Give the backbone structure.
Amino acid sequence: MTGACERAERRSERTKSRPIRNFLETIMEREKTKSELINFVRTIQRPDCPLDDIDGDLSLVKSGLIDSLALLQIISYLEQTYGIDFREKGVDPADLASVNAILELIERESGA
């Protein structure tokens, strides 16, 4: 009987830790996506506006980091990388205003 109780207790502990594990995996995935997005933005940022640190809430266009052509490149990147289809719903400029706004768009559109 003791063995069965111990197995049930271990199973219960694993079940309790799943939500925490899922939460941590979600956070890690978001950080990975953020890092990839920032690396992409660095490839299209204006050469006359170098920034060493791109903050998640930094307004990409208002700061001068990117221009309107770069916004089109971001849309193309999102379509190719995350399968987001802008043809049906169009583009809301607020969704592309900052790295964090783009991350929210990715999460919303991918159902994450």
Observations:
- Helices lie at 2-44, 68-82, 86-89, 99-110.
